[in-house]
Write a structure and sequence with these properties.
Blueprint (H helix, E strand, L loop, with lengths): L5 H9 L4 E4 L8 H11 L6 E4 L5 E2 L2 E2 L13 E4 L3 H14 L3 E4 L10 H17 L2 E3 L6 E3 L4 E2 L14 E5 L4 H11 L4 E6 L8 H9 L6 E6 L5 H13 L4 E5 L13 H5 L2 H9 L4 E4 L2 H13 L8 E5 L2 H13 L9 H11 L9 E2 L8 H12 L6 E5 L10 H21 L7 E4 L8 H7 L7 E2 L2 H19 L11 H15 L5 E2 L2 H10 L7 E4 L2 H11 L3 E6 L12 E5 L2 H18 L7 E6 L5 E10 L3 E8 L3 H5 L2 E4 L5 H9 L2 H6 L10 H18 L3 E11 L6 E3 L3 E4 L6
Parallel strand pairs: 1-2, 1-5, 5-6, 6-7, 10-11, 10-12, 12-13, 13-14, 15-16, 15-17, 17-18, 18-19
Antiparallel strand pairs: 3-4, 8-9, 8-11, 20-30, 21-24, 22-23, 22-24, 25-26, 25-28, 26-27, 28-29, 28-30
Helix pairs in contact: 1-6, 3-4, 5-10, 6-7, 10-16, 11-16, 12-13, 13-14, 19-20, 22-24
């Protein structure tokens, strides 16, 4: 078995010395014929060997009956054979010295059958044993521009030009389609990987390779399911730190949320919420469509980094002005009023009859000769409150069909080129073109736009401002990225987590911790708890209440008693000893009636909490992305309005504050209609502590609810009034 790293394997896959096409068919429209034609068309430098025992010649060249008959050992295999034969083929090729393969066959785990899963398990074992670099199965091939390799059966690709974009997608059709759209817009693509089931190499491996390629400035991923999420996130963080954004089109976001039968958090956290919680901090920009991906890629590649979010908008259409203003508001892109000196200068240029506002409708003036238009641009560009300029213009589709058209085309391109030369470059404010409506580039406009490489050409205002907002958010997150490993846990906490991990490892299914055990766990990590104690008898409950002081709360305690209110196991505002003892008896009777299999461990007696704002804190281990932290409105509001937001484990105080601000509960926390303000700092502290617990034990804590978590008046702190942890066996993600 090879000992090379997976990055080395990707290099072998994408830079083969020779190719053998197994399963070659004569049909000129078939996949094998088109792959052979692509390798010939783009002048792949190594030999290409068709393999099929039924042909002596095919496609005008010699065809070989099997791998041993080839004149040299093939470096890369195009495996167009039935699923059941793939494992044997790979083992044979690896024994000969082949180094990589692309497996196109379907019928593996994606078929959803036991037979398919068994075939994939065999394939995975063969890949591990042989050390082959394998993309697929269930894929459509790859593109490597520098190596002149196109094993996609796609004859619509016109050029192989190494460029700033590298792409990997689990969809074999969609990923190349987006690549062609980028090429049509004049954006060259160095790599396209259709990774399929990722039985061998996975998305994280490809990202790591792209990070090391100096030509690649941006990475696009189309993801159905994240494999080995820790590796995926680590690769994305490496790309972030290298200044290479990762744009992800995530599929499957409409599935119902993950269900954890024992906790609220599990029913509130869904796949996309978990993905978003950890993706942003790792340097990922998630998009919802191919068009959004293209817009964001265009913006990231061609615009310099803005110092802030304020946009100055220049248009020459009242309709575009209105659409731009609406879109900017919808996507929270600020359009500030121009500074007084800017307003004065614009009035001098445009005349007293023009309304000076942002967006600025300079109808007629921008259509004047280049130098006149540049004076308006200069005034807006140099406004001290403007960080980016958006300018209405679409690229001419041709050089013009008459003199007037030709003059306009020449003027438009000269103006944009002058803007690029005069205003743009490293450290300068970005400048963005938007059009009134979406349009495609022609060969003429693709060629022309290469003259102004620092100007993104975005489509209509809605798409443009959405892309601008996405890029602004990404660059803010990158500036605020929390670097370095998490601080080591003190020895007592490490021992506690290890004990919990051993307990989880011995279990076959998830199990809940009792409320006292759950609270002991969260309290150890620093979450504040209300004064309380566990009583085994009615007399102990009475004595506890006397020590705590009335009024008190009494709750039944049992690990299986996960929803106490449903079982009648809670009594509140008890004012004397007799009431406490009666509550113990009532709770025991109610629980026995509710579920005769539940045996009470005793009663939790707690001091009655003061008035405050009921919140919920929690965490959930997503099967795909791992642990996420939750914050939102608690108590009865949790299920009624589901005002919650999710964050990454190990979140900082700034991240915790942003998590709070993303909810309506955050507004209540700061005071609303005479209620509050409450102790925001204490809530932030609790979220940071919970994030530390999620980072330390998120592999074994299935879910955790702290509901209600009571925020007290400002300066008075906060209290965890209830907690339920569900522990389950961890597993590889």
């Amino acid at each position: 078995m090879s000992t090379s790293t997976n990055t080395d394997k990707v290099a072998r896959l994408l830079n083969p010395a020779s190719v053998a096409i197994l399963g070659a068919r004569e049909n000129p429209s078939g996949w094998t014929a088109r792959i052979f034609a692509n390798l010939v068309r783009f002048e792949f430098e190594g030999p290409v060997y068709p393999v099929n025992p039924n042909h002596e010649r095919i496609w005008g060249v010699e065809c070989y009956p099997d791998l041993p008959s080839l004149p040299t050992v093939p470096d890369h295999l195009v495996v167009m054979r039935a699923a059941a034969s793939v494992t044997g083929i790979l083992r044979e090729a690896a024994a000969m010295g082949s180094r990589s393969a692309t497996v196109y066959a379907t019928g593996f785990s994606e078929a959803g059958t036991d037979a398919g899963r068994a075939l994939e398990a065999e394939l995975r074992e063969a890949i591990a044993e042989t050390g082959l670099a394998v993309s697929g199965p269930n894929c459509l091939g790859n593109l490597s521009a520098r190596a002149r390799v196109l094993t996609l059966p796609d004859d619509r690709v016109q050029e192989l030009v190494p460029g700033p974009v590298a792409m990997v997608g689990q969809s074999g059709t969609t990923t190349p389609s987006i690549a062609r759209t980028l090429m049509d817009r004049g954006i060259d693509v160095s790599y396209v990987i259709t990774s399929g089931n990722e039985t061998g190499l996975i998305t994280a491996d490809y990202i790591r390779y792209f990070v090391g390629d100096p030509d690649v400035r941006l990475i696009f991923c189309l993801v159905e399911a994240v494999r080995r999420s820790e590796d995926f996130l680590a690769a994305c963080r490496a790309a972030r730190d290298a200044g290479k954004p990762v744009v992800v089109l995530k599929m499957g976001v409409s599935e119902g949320g993950r269900r954890a039968a024992l906790s609220h958090t599990g029913s509130l956290a869904g796949r996309v919420e978990a993905f978003d919680a950890v993706a942003g901090p790792a340097g990922i920009i998630r998009v919802e469509s191919a068009d959004r991906a293209v817009d964001v890629i265009e913006m990231l590649l061609h615009a310099s980094e803005a110092r802030g979010d304020n946009v100055g908008c220049l248009v020459y259409s009242g309709g575009v002005r209105g659409l731009a203003e609406d879109a900017a508001d919808r996507h929270r892109v600020p359009l500030p009023e121009f500074a007084p000196d800017t307003r004065t200068r614009l009035r001098e240029l445009l005349g007293d009859g023009m309304t000076i506002s942002n967006p600025l409708d300079a109808d007629g003036y921008l259509n004047r000769p280049k130098e006149d238009a540049l004076k308006v641009v200069d005034a807006v560009y140099n406004d001290p409150g403007v960080d980016m300029v958006v300018f209405q213009e679409d690229l001419p589709p041709h050089e013009g069909i008459n003199d007037a058209n030709r003059r306009r085309a020449t003027r438009v391109l000269a103006t944009i080129e002058a803007i690029d030369e005069r205003f743009l470059g490293p450290g300068q404010k970005p400048f963005v073109l938007i059009s009134p409506a979406s349009y495609d580039l022609t060969e003429f406009s693709r060629t022309a736009r290469r003259r102004f490489p620092h100007v993104p050409c975005l489509n209509e205002p809605e798409r443009a401002f959405r892309a601008i907002r996405a890029v602004q958010d990404y660059r803010r997150r990158r500036r605020e990225a929390e670097g370095g490993p998490a601080p080591a846990l003190p020895e007592p906490l490490t021992a506690r987590v290890e004990a919990l991990r051993r307990r989880a490892a011995s279990a076959t299914t998830a199990f809940p911790l009792s409320e006292p055990d759950s609270k002991e766990l969260v309290g150890a990590f620093g979450l504040p708890l209300i004064d309380e104690g566990l009583a085994r008898t009615e007399e102990e409950a009475r004595d506890l209440a006397e020590r705590l002081g009335y009024p008190v709360v009494v709750k039944g305690v049992a690990a299986k008693l996960t929803h106490k209110s449903d079982a009648g196991a809670v009594r509140v505002n008890l004012g004397d000893a007799a009431a406490v003892q009666q509550a113990c008896r009532d709770i025991a009777r109610n629980v026995a009636t509710h579920d005769p299999d539940i045996r009470l461990d005793g009663w939790l007696v707690a001091r009655m909490a003061p008035a405050g704002l009921e919140l919920v804190l929690g965490m959930q281990r997503d099967p795909e992305m791992g642990p996420v932290v939750m914050f939102g409105a608690g108590g009865v509001w949790l299920e009624l309005v589901k005002d919650v937001a999710f964050g990454a484990p190990g979140l900082s105080r700034d991240s915790a504050a942003r998590l709070i601000d993303s909810t309506r509960a955050g507004r209540l926390l700061d005071g609303y209609r005479g209620q509050g303000p409450y102790d925001r700092g204490a809530v932030i502290d609790a979220l940071v502590a919970l994030g530390r617990l999620a980072a330390a034990a998120g592999d074994v804590i299935e879910s955790l609810d702290i509901n209600p978590f009571l925020a007290l008046p400002k300066g008075a702190g906060a209290l965890a009034l209830d907690a339920l942890a569900v522990v389950g066996p961890g597993g590889e993600r």
